[in-house]
Structures are given as C-alpha cells and as structure tokens.
Amino acid sequence: QRMRYLHSILSSACDEVKASHNPSVVVLTGAGISAESGIRTFRASDGLWEDHRIEDVATPEGFEANPELVQAFYNARRRQLISPEILPNDAHKALAKLEDLLGNKFLLVTQNVDNLHERAGNMRVIHMHGELLKIRCTRSGKVAEWKGDLSVNERCYCCEPPQPMRPHIVWFGEMPLEMDKISQAIAEADYFIAIGTSGHVYPAAGFVRSARLYGAHTVELNLEPSQVANSFEEKHCGLASQVVPEYIQ
Ligand code: BJW
C-alpha cells in the first residue's frame, strides 16, 4: 500500500539513502487543517460564508463599494489569529516534520491566509490566496506587515500621493499568487496530498488533475469527501489532527 511506502521511505535512517530516494511531495492545504486550531472554515454550516456574502467581502467590487466593511471583516479575523488561544495543531506539526525530512523535495501550497504553517515550523510555504497579517498598496502592489487595525484612511509610503492600502488577500476574480512555481512543483511531484479543502475553489481544486496527468500519486485527507474526491487515487476521511500524522509519520 502506498501509505506504507511513503512511511517506510521517510523512516529510513541513512541521510544519503534519503537524499537519493526521497519522493518529491507537494501538499495543498485548505481551511480544514486549521479548523481544530479554532479558525472557522468557509463552507461549513457555521462557516464564514454563512455570516458574510462572498460578493461583499471577498471580491474587488465589494472592496470598492464598501472598504470599511471589508477592512472590518479582515481586522476581526486578524485579531482572532493573533490571540493566544490560536495555535498550530498536530496536523500542522506533522507537515513541519515532513519538510524537515524532505528538504527541498517538499513544497507546501496553502490556500489558507493564517500563519499556522509557519508557526509550526514550515518554511517552504506558498500562500496562494495571500496572507491575513499582510497588507498591500492598491497602486504599486508593494506588500507590508499589518501593524494593527487598518483604517480606510491608511495610506502607503511608496506612492506620491500616498494610496490606500488593502488586505493582501486574493479575492474572487483575482489571480492566485506564485502560480508558475506551483505548476512547476506539481509537474515534478511524486506525491500530491490535499488536506482539509472542499474542492470548490479553482484553480486549487484543479491541481489534483494536473498532478495525476504528470504521474503523481494523489491523496486526499479530509473530514469528508471533497467536490473533487473522485480525482484522487487514495482517500482517508477524518480529522486532520489524526489522519495527517497517521498518513505521513
Ligand atoms: C476538515 C476539518 C478537520 C473541516 N479536519 N478536514 C473554474 C471553474 C469555475 C469557476 C472558476 C474556475 N476557475 C476560476 C474560477 C473562479 C473562482 C472560483 O473558483 N469560483 C468557484 C467558487 C466556482 N476562482 C477565482 O476567482 C480565483 N482566481 C482565479 O481563478 O483567477 C483566474 C484569473 C484569470 C485571469 C484574470 C484574473 C483571474 C481566486 C480564488 C480566491 C479564493 N479566495 C478565498 C477568500 C479569500 C481569503 C479569505 O478571505 O480568507 O479563499 S475563497 C475561500 O475559499 C478562501 C479559501 O482559501 C478558499 C478555499 O476554501 P477551503 O480552504 O477549501 O475551505 P472550505 O471551507 O470550502 O472547506 C473546508 C474543508 O475542510 C471541508 O471539505 C471540510 O469537510 C474540511 N474540514 N474540518 C479535516 N478538522
């Protein structure tokens, strides 16, 4: 079984053997991996999209129409993210260990805008939908750290006259970040593992099909089968904090 195969390669004691035989692994994560850390997912019955209309808070048009509402939506989520009770869980920690073992044969592509992967110890992380704790200039695109609630009047330091700042978030209709790097890693991957994502949002939901076309072994780890579950060769249902450590350790 593939699960045992990945496990036995990773548990090899000898570094040289590992370096030559380690598979290259691309992991795609979604909101489900952070659910047990206390961050709401989007599409659950108690999810973020139950309380907010997507068009109002997660589109460029929504921001243009009501920047106050959009800034308030993201500021509330930022305040939650930096609160002391929000911590990486065992699934995040297992991925940090996997990166330790695989080094540059590992890439973590996350749709999540939280920083829990980094806080667990991952360094090779692409935030394809942006980052909650960053803001960027609406004109130059220059990215800065979020340093407290962003008011609609806040302006950048890069333009003259200074321009409004916006959340560093990829909204619907906007191009996800670092797509070239992601596509290349998927083309070279031996394993493609999707964790905690519903498969509703493209292009991320289409990665499994590309990975398979390029010959990767594809694995879904999710609470329930996703919208694109049929595209995966191997599936394990359960809580991320249980199935992720079980699968990769
Ligand atoms: C657990 C668990 C536990 C729970 N353990 N599991 C092709 C076809 C149709 C439409 C399109 C298409 N290509 C593009 C589109 C348009 C659009 C799109 O996909 N629309 C669909 C809704 C149909 N895509 C876009 O607009 C994207 N841009 C784009 O394609 O640009 C192309 C372009 C071309 C040319 C010019 C310009 C552009 C951008 C998408 C941006 C997504 N943004 C959001 C919000 C922003 C961030 C924020 O505010 O936080 O990103 S939407 C939201 O959904 C967020 C997420 O990253 C994303 C994915 O959600 P995710 O992570 O899957 O969460 P959930 O809640 O859906 O699922 C959680 C899962 O976890 C569930 O399955 C649970 O069961 C599970 N779970 N607890 C394990 N403990």
TrEMBL record:
> Binding residues for NAD(+), per the UniProt record?
30-49, 111-114, 196-198, 222-224, 240
EC number in record? 2.3.1.286
Concerning Gene3D superfamilies, the annotation shows: SIR2/SIRT2 'Small Domain (3.30.1600.10), TPP-binding domain (3.40.50.1220)
Task: Identify the InterPro entries for this entry.
Answer: DHS-like_NAD/FAD-binding_dom, NAD-dep_sirtuin_deacylases, Sirtuin, Sirtuin_cat_small_dom_sf, Sirtuin_class_III, Ssirtuin_cat_dom
Kindly give the PROSITE patterns that the UniProt entry links to this protein. Answer: SIRTUIN (PS50305)
Q: Which cofactor does it need?
A: Zn(2+)
Keyword Chaperone found: no
Q: Which domain of life is it from?
A: Bacteria
Q: Where is the Deacetylase sirtuin-type domain?
A: 3-249
Q: Sorted alphabetically, which CDD domains does this protein's record hold? A: SIRT5_Af1_CobB
Q: Write down how the cofactor binds this protein.
A: Binds 1 zinc ion per subunit.
Residues forming the catalytic site = H129
Provide the primary localization: cytoplasm
Q: Where does substrate bind?
A: Y74, R77
Localization, UniProt: Cytoplasm
Catalyses which reaction?
N(6)-acetyl-L-lysyl-[protein] + NAD(+) + H2O = 2''-O-acetyl-ADP-D-ribose + nicotinamide + L-lysyl-[protein]; N(6)-succinyl-L-lysyl-[protein] + NAD(+) + H2O = 2''-O-succinyl-ADP-D-ribose + nicotinamide + L-lysyl-[protein]; N(6)-(2-hydroxyisobutanoyl)-L-lysyl-[protein] + NAD(+) + H2O = 2''-O-(2-hydroxyisobutanoyl)-ADP-D-ribose + nicotinamide + L-lysyl-[protein]
Domain comment quoted from the record: 2 residues (Tyr-74 and Arg-77) present in a large hydrophobic pocket are probably involved in substrate specificity. They are important for desuccinylation activity, but dispensable for deacetylation activity.
What function does the entry list? Answer: NAD-dependent lysine deacetylase that specifically removes acetyl groups on target proteins. Also acts as a protein-lysine deacylase by mediating protein desuccinylation and de-2-hydroxyisobutyrylation. Modulates the activities of several proteins which are inactive in their acylated form.
Family label: Belongs to the sirtuin family. Class III subfamily.
Query: Can you name this protein?
Result: NAD-dependent protein deacylase
The gene behind this protein is cobB
